[in-house]
Write a structure and sequence with these properties.
Helix content is 38%, strand content 20%. By secondary structure, it is of the alpha+beta class. Helix 1 runs antiparallel to helix 3.
């Protein structure tokens, strides 16, 4: 795949995210957050921030270059993070909720870990909530893969 074909595919994937999370935001919220309340409001605001971030990426052709896509966690990013306190690493891809499969290292952006990592930047040190308490993690690498899945509800798992 040549560079322009790759960027075209990335652009298509990001536009598909905007359609799903922007234009169809209420349908998405109704599907995953039936109860109106604090959590739904927070997710709605977070989705607005995410769509603004993606719109900004799409409006600047230079940001779609490798450096821009691999410096911030997006839906479709393969993220490697390290646990500085334990000298270990973990990796997974951030995906839409109905594409999640923890056994395949596909983590929903709505999961507790996914929410905390989405929009984080390369090198960020963040505290991730876990049942045993907060765990410090550092974003060690980000590779935008697009998730290698359909943006239409997860019906197609691979491409």
């Amino acid at each position: 795949m040549n560079h322009s074909t790759g960027l075209s595919r990335v652009r298509e994937q990001l536009v598909a995210q905007l359609v799903l999370l922007g234009d169809e935001k209420n349908r998405f919220l109704d599907a995953y957050f039936v109860m109106h309340g604090k959590e739904r409001t927070e997710i709605s605001q977070f989705l607005s921030l995410y769509t603004q971030t993606v719109q900004k990426l799409l409006s600047d052709p230079d940001s779609l270059a490798d450096e821009g896509l691999h410096s911030q966690v997006l839906i479709g990013s393969y993220v490697t993070f390290e646990y500085p306190d334990f000298d270990t690493k973990d990796s997974f891809t951030i995906v839409l909720p109905d594409q999640a499969d923890p056994d395949e290292n596909l983590i929903s952006f709505l999961s507790p870990v996914g929410r905390q990592l989405l929009l984080a930047h390369l090198g960020d040190l963040i505290s991730v909530a876990a049942p045993s308490g907060a765990i410090r993690t550092r974003i060690a690498a980000i590779t935008f893969t697009g998730g290698n899945s359909s943006m239409e509800g997860g019906e197609a798992r691979g491409s």
